[in-house]
Amino acid sequence: MVDGSKIGVRLNESFLMIPFKSISGIYGFGPEDKINRTRVACDLCPREDCIGRR
After folding, report:
1. Residue 21 in contact with residue 28, Cβ under 8 Å?
2. What are the domain boundaries of the chain?
């Protein structure tokens, strides 16, 4: 992982990245790199009242 202070990025109190046009990502690789497409991410989320819930 990169130390955000070294590249001028930080998180505010709401965990939003500053500057706002910053992006982050995760790239998986290795023997278990296949995505399980039968599982919906909402199944794992405790927010039952989320507007994005499927």
Report:
1. no
2. 1-45
